[in-house]
Amino acid sequence: MKSGAAPNPSPGVxxxxxxxxxxxxxxxxxxxxxxxxxxxxxxxxxxxxVYVGSADSHHEQRLPMAGRLExxxxxxxxxxxxxxxxxxxxxxxxxxxxEPDQLTEFRIPREVAAAPALVTSIYPSxxxxxxxxxxxxxxxxxxMTPHLATxxxxxxxASGRTDRAAFMRFKxxxxxxxxxx
Length: 181
Known about the structure:
Radius of gyration: 22 Å
CATH class of the largest domain: Mainly Beta
Number of strands: 10
């Protein structure tokens, strides 16, 4: 592990000062150290950042996730710009007043689907479509996992051959808000 950060002895387990999210819209919260009077320290030397991946793949040159860092009394909280993804590994880098940085891994548990995903509709619809159709809408019965669509959705011609160039690959997929289209 690079960067001089010490791994948390219990990766993925909450320590007394670091509260990890339990669902995709929870923040990561770090309780700030107090001075002798019991007031929260001024925040010098205390920091919190969150990265995608595991502690083993963490290094100082990686960029943290985009999000909002807020201080509220005795806590420092991080809420990502885009919600955490269930099943994805994350690592929190936290530091407190001169102590070595700690890396703590966590993962939001996947929800167990009650039923398998089904295609509920496809637009445009019809038996024959022009070759220059630029946009398809495929509606699913349950939310889809991000970054896996092209692994499971294929376009086939009349003879059953898969057209591998039919879908553009984007870093940010074009899902609707609930990831069903």
